[in-house]
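2024-03-11 09:14:02 INFO worker-7 job=invfold-0412 stage=load source=structure_tokens
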């Protein structure tokens, strides 16, 4: 079972205990356990089998027993008991930006509010404005958060969906009645958020495959069960559809079920102009089925070069695939030579510097850029100048004994006026500087744009971090003129990161294609706060591919010697 499941349970236990005004030290114990387990790379099963669970920081006997209980039963009894003590709607309220356990408790105790609909009504009736700890502004922000939550309801992060899909895909691949199987839909196109998971199989025995699919352990409910299509809802709430076709129909069904509606419409138009009829069952010349053994042959038949699944959004990919056009040779994970934007326990990371470095080295990377938070980020244990010096000395020592180059960096806060959070002298001591906005998200579009542009003009800044500040399915981006920011970055010779954290995936892929055309270069950064987070680089590569980026558009595809010269030249 995934660490994310037990991490979510322990975090929810802490939230429930805080709402119920339980012991502060016990609350903190569950919060620490959630953070620790969320950052380990070993599986829970291995940790328990090797008796290493209680060696982890913050995992005592009581917590360890609950982990074992979870592995045996898929749940934690204490967690179930706590949930019975509060209205179910309170946990839903925690999903609203700005509504932490203390505020949820305040509206529950103070105004008898126990659901999002009650909370929205209270805000519209101005009842939160005079409640202690709130006010007119927080009431307005809560309404915005409710609106965003409604808009994103029923959607799931790509990372959550792919982690649910991959074990199912592997089992379908091994099933004796399955000839071919593939992911399809928005997940195959690597959209940042998805509504459901789609699979296509070719088989001569669809009934047997459908029975296997609907009886999987992950299934919470079967919503449709037929010979050629079945739908289930997983225990984590994601809907999954399985389509079964004959092997000769497989390429056409896969293409149809992968492309966006707009892409498929454009492809049918292309086919019609070429004298074909195209649908999910085949490509036809009159009544004759044009035999294609895979998707590549479908494209070739229509006079197109193969269009990668990520590009099938009708953003010019069909025109670029025509004769004389040029599709990009998309960046791949194997092209990434190193990573920047890595946090350690010096600030808010969960693993020590050497552990993060060793993990990066074990991943086969040539370099890693450490970038802990700057001094104003007190919430993240930001470093003051003396601790910067201490960390840099440790990096110097590690560089002498590790087979990976460690670059000294910082994620430096951009202050309200666009100034940097460190003095010029401190900034000059780093190999690279990531400038990021972490506060005052409600500035006007003009003010925020000026703030970021000024930071990009600082000679020590190497790149802009998470440019829009969005948190997918949780927080909308702040108001900013991205076109102006991108033009400023290009003009100043600066990089904008593609933040690969699955909650961010920022810059958006819809922006990347145009930014590339303007000459922008990006760095695909994991924004890793633990060893597991270093692997998030894969999610960033997926978004880069959707944004038409090639290896030459991404600075961290440079080999080490070129990267050393690049950073030194800045």
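2024-03-11 09:14:09 INFO worker-7 stage=emit residues=570
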């Amino acid at each position: 079972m995934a660490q994310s499941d037990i991490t979510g349970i322990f975090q929810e236990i802490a939230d429930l205990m805080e709402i119920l005004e339980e012991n502060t030290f016990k609350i903190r114990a569950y919060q620490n356990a959630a953070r620790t387990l969320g950052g380990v790379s070993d599986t829970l099963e291995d940790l328990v089998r090797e008796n290493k669970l209680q060696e982890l920081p913050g995992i005592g006997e009581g917590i360890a027993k609950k982990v074992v209980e979870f592995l045996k039963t898929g749940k934690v009894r204490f967690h179930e008991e706590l949930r019975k003590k509060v209205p179910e709607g309170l946990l839903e309220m925690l999903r609203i930006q700005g509504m932490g356990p203390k505020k949820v408790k305040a509206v529950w105790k103070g105004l008898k509010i126990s659901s999002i609909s009650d909370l929205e009504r209270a805000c519209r009736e101005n009842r939160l404005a005079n409640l202690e700890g709130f006010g007119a502004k927080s009431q307005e922000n809560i309404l915005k958060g409710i609106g965003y939550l409604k808009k994103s309801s029923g959607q799931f992060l790509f990372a959550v969906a792919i982690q649910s899909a991959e074990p199912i895909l592997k089992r379908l691949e091994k099933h004796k009645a399955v000839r071919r199987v593939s992911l399809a839909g928005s997940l195959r196109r690597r959209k940042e958020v998805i509504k459901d998971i789609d699979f296509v199989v070719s088989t001569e025995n669809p009934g047997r495959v459908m029975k296997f699919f609907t009886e999987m352990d992950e299934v919470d409910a079967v919503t449709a069960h037929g010979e050629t299509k079945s739908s289930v809802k997983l225990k984590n709430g994601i809907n999954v559809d399985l389509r079964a076709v004959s092997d000769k129909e497989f390429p056409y069904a896969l293409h149809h079920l992968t492309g966006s509606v707009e892409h498929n419409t454009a492809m049918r138009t292309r086919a019609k102009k070429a004298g074909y009829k195209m649908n999910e069952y085949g490509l036809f010349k009159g009544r004759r089925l044009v035999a294609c053994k895979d998707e590549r042959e479908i494209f070739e038949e229509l006079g197109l070069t193969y269009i990668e699944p990520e590009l099938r959004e009708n953003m010019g990919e069909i025109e670029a695939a025509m004769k004389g056009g040029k599709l990009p040779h998309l960046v791949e994970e194997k092209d990434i030579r190193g990573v920047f934007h890595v946090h350690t326990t010096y600030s808010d990371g969960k693993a020590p510097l050497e552990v993060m470095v060793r993990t990066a080295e074990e991943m086969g990377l040539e370099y890693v850029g450490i970038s802990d938070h700057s001094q104003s980020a007190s919430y993240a244990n930001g470093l003051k100048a003396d601790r910067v010096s201490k960390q840099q000395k440790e990096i110097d020592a590690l560089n002498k004994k590790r087979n990976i180059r460690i670059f000294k960096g910082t994620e430096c806060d951009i202050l309200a006026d666009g100034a940097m959070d460190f003095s010029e002298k401190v900034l000059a001591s780093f190999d690279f500087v990531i400038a990021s906005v972490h506060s005052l998200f409600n500035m006007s579009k003009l003010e925020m744009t000026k703030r970021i542009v000024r930071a990009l003009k600082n000679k020590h800044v190497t790149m802009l971090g998470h440019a829009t500040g969005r948190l997918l399915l949780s927080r909308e981006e702040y108001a900013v003129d991205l076109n102006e920011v991108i033009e400023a970055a290009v003009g100043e010779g600066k990089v904008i990161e593609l933040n690969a954290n699955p909650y961010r995936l920022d810059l958006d892929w819809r922006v990347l294609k145009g930014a590339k055309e303007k000459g922008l270069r990006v760095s695909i950064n994991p924004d890793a706060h633990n060893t597991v987070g270093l692997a998030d680089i894969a999610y960033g590569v997926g978004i880069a591919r959707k944004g038409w980026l090639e290896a030459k558009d991404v600075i961290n595809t440079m080999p080490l010697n070129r990267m050393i010269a690049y950073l030194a030249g800045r």
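2024-03-11 09:14:09 INFO worker-7 stage=report msg="The CA atoms of residues 3 and 44 lie 7 Å apart."
2024-03-11 09:14:10 INFO worker-7 job finished
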